[in-house]
Amino acid sequence: MGFIGTVGLVLHPERTCAPTVDAVVRWSRARGTKVLGLATEVARIGCEAIPVGPEELTASADLLISLGGDGTMLRTMRLATRGRAPVLGVNVGRLGFLAEVDIPELPAALDAIDAQRFTLEARSAVHARFGDAGDTGNAQQETALNDVVLLRSPGHKSAAVAVRVQGEPFVAYTADAVVVATPTGSTAYSFSAGGPIVSPNAEGLLITPVAPHAAFNRSVFLSSGERLELEVLPHSGDLAVEADGLLVGRLAPGGVVEVTMLPAAARVVRLGRTTFYQRAQRKLRLTGSAEHG
Q1: Measured between alpha carbons, how far is 54 from 115 in angstroms, rounded to an integer?
Q2: Do 96 and 14 share a domain, yes or no?
Q3: Is 144 in the same domain as 114?
């Protein structure tokens, strides 16, 4: 019996994935395995996958397949944090950092996974617990695979944020935003703000200011076990809180975000076809910088 008994599909919200979904259904039918899909997504493209809710998808699937770009892959990885299934990323359209195969390679990739010829790459998540000053009883909690961002609200003053590590004040940033990224997220918003590329094998949190206005403008990388708190300072404007690019809340001056790292929150399937550095070269067009002569 193969590794895959049930496949769960997560689809790009706009691109037509129907032919690729049909290929997965055909592959599964030939092996007597089930294909599940999120009910709203399955209805949109009218495919033969069994429509289920997110809980059943993550509880039942042996493998989650993300059909899309990095955004779809992040959404699939967030779903995967609730269950045990690893995630296979399939590029649909633009190249991504996280996907492992392109559409024509999918049937062969499923054969390899079913025969257990693959490795798993653990990806950490960042967990944020936040609320306004004196409102700890109603704190919100969010988990992100890329980053949590404190962002200046339009028309408000800059983000003024104090960073505390292990309960001790360390530094304060004044900037348009402050990004707390996982190694996965180091090549996203943090990178565009001038932060370093961090290997996905590293474990820790990367703090990067966006368009900083203060004297201290460098990124800081903390180890996975260190306690991190971000406090919105009295002279800050109101801030939006984003998790993986989604608006999840707002904070006024005095508000605090407690941030922890969740090691191995999701697992990504790797078939040994490319390394992280090859994918980074391709996505960031770094090839010329690595050539000499």
Answers
A1: 27
A2: yes
A3: no
Helix (H) or strand (E) holding 41: helix 39-45
Report d(CA 70, CA 87) in Å as an integer: 12
Q: Which residues are catalytic?
A: 70
CA distance 29 to 33: 6
Same domain (yes/no): 96, 165: no
Number of domains in the chain: 2
Q: Do 131 and 180 belong to one domain?
A: yes
Q: Are residues 41 and 62 in the same domain?
A: yes
**What are the DSSP calls for 53-117, one per residue?**
-HHHHHHH-SEEEEEESHHHHHHHHHHHTTSS--EEEEE-SS--SS--EEGGGHHHHHHHHHTT-
CA-CA-CA-CA torsion sign (212, 216, 221, 225): negative
Q: What is the pLDDT along the chain (293 residues), one digit of tens a residue?
A: 689 999 999 998 888 788 889 889 999 999 999 999 999 998 887 778 899 999 999 999 999 999 998 899 999 999 999 888 999 999 887 777 788 998 899 999 999 999 999 999 999 999 999 987 766 567 899 999 999 999 998 888 999 999 999 999 999 999 999 999 999 999 999 999 999 999 999 999 999 999 998 778 999 999 988 999 999 999 999 999 999 999 999 999 999 999 999 999 999 999 987 888 888 888 887 766 545 44
Domain that holds residue 170: 125-264
